[in-house]
Amino acid sequence: MANFTKFLVSILMTFVLSSCGETTENSRNDGPPNIIFIMSDDHAYQAISSYDGRLNQTPNIDRLADEGMRFTQSFVTNSICGPSRAVMLTGKYSHVNGHIDNNVAFDGSQQTFPKLLQKAGYQTAIVGKWHLKSEPTGFDYYNILPGQGHYYNPDFIENGERKRIPGYVTDLTTDFAINWLNDRDENKPFCLLVHHKAPHRNWMPAPEYLNKYDDVEFPLPETFFDNYETRGSSAREQTLSIGDDMQLAYDMKVPQLYRKTQPESRQTADSTAWGLIAGRMSEEQRSAWNKAYQPKNDELIKAELSGDDLTVWKYQRYMQDYLSCIASVDDNVGRLMDYLEERGLSENTIIVYTSDQGFYLGEHGWFDKRFMYEQSLRTPLIVRYPKEIQATVNEKDMVLNLDYAPTFLDYAGVDIPEDMQGTSLRKVLTSETSEDWRESIYYRYYEYPAVHAVKRHYGIRTDRYKLIHFYYDVDEWEFYDLQEDPMEINNIYNDPNNADLIQDLKNKLTALQEQYQDTEGDLFLPQPDVEIDHLGKGGAVTLKNPFHPKYPGGGPDGLTNGLRGADMGFLYSKYDAWQGFEGVDMEAVVDLKVSMEISSISCGFLQKNNAWIFLPKKISVFTSTDGEEFKKLKEFKSSTPKKFAPDKREEYTVEVKNKTVRYIKVIAEAIGNCPEWHPGAGGKAWVFADEIIVK
Length: 695
Ligand code: SGN
Ligand code: CA
Description:
ten-stranded mixed beta sheet, 25% helix, seven-stranded antiparallel beta sheet, Jelly Rolls, disordered N terminus, alpha+beta, 23% strand
C-alpha cells in the first residue's frame, strides 16, 4: 500500500472508531462525565470540618469541598438507611418506591438511575454497603457487604459470591473500588458507587486509630441534658439516648462492665453482641485492640462512675470511636481522589460525597437518627466537578437526596423520566441562585414500632419553620421557629399567636402530599392481628421445644388463643400473634379437651427472611383420640429460598373427612441455621407460628 493510502485508511479508521464511541482515555475528557458517588453511613455534618470544625478535622473531604460546591441546606426525605438509599436510586419517595423502612426488601425490578446509565453506555458498579436486602440490579459489578456488614474481616458478596476478607472495612471498600477502576473498559464512561459502612454503630476504629482521640475532651452539645419539656411523647419515649440506651459492652467496648449498663433483660444480649464482634478479629487485631482499650477501660472501671457522670463519659467514648471511624473514611476519600488525579480522571469525573442521613452526636442527649429534627434531617452534600461547578458554599437552596438520580442522569445526557420526583441539581450547582427552586421540603418516616422507638411522622420544613405531625398511635403536632430556636427545644404549636402561620403551613403540607401523591398514608400502617373463632380455640397446648420469651405470641396457649397474624405478614402487623422458635422445631400437641368431629386443621407460618424467619422445611399434621397414638394425616414440604423470598403468612390446611378427634399434633421442622447466601449465614433461623386453626 502506498504511504498516502495508508494515511487515508488510518484517518478513516480513526473516524470510524470514534463515531462508534471507541474513544481513547484522553478524548474521554470531553465525553459524558464519569461519576463517583461516595456515601458513608450515618456521617453527621457536625463531624466534617468544612461544615463544623469543633469536633474533628477531615482534610480530604474538605479538599473536595474546597474544590466543589458544599450544600448546607441538604436534607433526606426519610432519615434511615435502606429507605434513603432507595430514594437515591429511584428519585422517588418511599411510598412510591415501596422501601418505606429497613424491614422491607427493595424491589430491584423497578427503574433506577444505575439502570438508566447502564442503558446509555455507562459501566456501573457498587462497592461496600448496600443494605437493600434484594440482589443489586443495574450494576455491571457489585461487591457488597451483607446486611450491615462488619468492621473487622468483613464478608463481602462479589457478584453473588460470598467471601470473608481479612482487613478493615473502609480500606477494603476503597481497595475494591480501585481494583474495579483499574479493570474497567477505559473507552466508556463509568458510574461507581463507593458506599462505606463507617461510621455506623458500633463504631469500631481501624487498628491505626485505636487511640486517636484518647486525649481529647469533646464539648458537650448545648442540648445534651434536654428534658423534652414542650415536646411530644415521641421525643420523650424514644430509646436512642446515650445515657439509657448505649450499652457498655457492644457500644462502649467495655465488656467487663456489661452488667452495669442496663436492665438485666438486656445484659446478656449486650455481652453476646460484643463477643460475636470481638470473635471476628484475628489474634493480631485482638491484641492490638486490647492493648489500646485495656488501659482506658481500667481507668473507667476504677472511677466507678454513675448517673450523669457515666453518661458524659459515654459521650466522650462515643465521640472518640465515632470520629476515629471517620478518620479512616477521610483517608480513603483522599486515596480515591489521588487515584483519580494520577490517572488524569479528576477533570471529567463528578465526585459526590454524602451520607445516607445525618446523626445525633449528643444533641438532645441522643445518638442515631429517624426524627425530622435538624441533626438527622440534614445530610452533608459536596459535589465536585470543576468543569461546571464553581468552588463555593450553597447556603440557600434546599436540596434532597431525592434529587441525586435526576442530577446524575442530567449530567450524563440521559432523559430524566417523568415519574422521577426529584429535580436535577444542575441548575443550583451552577451557583446562579435559581428563582424557581423549591421553598419547602416534605418528609416522612415510617419505621415504628421498631428499634429506638421513634414514632411515625411526616412534616414540612421551610427555610424558617418546621411543622411535624406524629400520626400513629398518637396524634401530636410540633412546630418550631428555626430562626428563633435553632436547637428545636421550644415546640410552639400551642401558642395561639402562631395559629395563622400553622394553618398556612398545614395547607402547604397538604399541597406537598398531593404533589408527591402521598395521600394514602394509611396503606403502610401496621395491621392489627386477626381474631378468628374456631373449634380449637381455648385448647391446651403442650410444646416440645419452648418458644423464645421475646416472641411469646400470646403465651403458653398462644397457638390456640384465636388470634392470628395479619395477612400482610409480620411486616406491618403488631407482632402479638406470632410465637417464635429460635433454631428449633415447633412441635405442638393441642388437646381439644373433648372429642369432636372436625373437618379441617390449618396452621399459619411466617416467611420474613430479613428478620431471619423462614418457613419450616417440613410440616406434618397428626390426630389422635387418646393422646398416645397419633396418625399422620399429611405432610407438606417447602424448599429453603435461594435468596430473599417475599414476606408472607403462609397457611397450610389439611382437610379431614369428618373425623372424631381429641388431640392434634403439628410438627414444623425448622431449617436450623440461616442459609449460605443470607447475612445471618450459620446463625439460628427462626420458625414463627401463629395459630392452629381447627374447623
Ligand atoms: C441497627 C442498629 C441501630 C440502628 C439500625 C438502623 N443497632 O439495628 O442502632 O438504628 O441498625 O441503622 S445495632 O445494635 O445493630 O448496631 S441503619 O443504618 O441500618 O438504618
Ligand atoms: Ca444509616
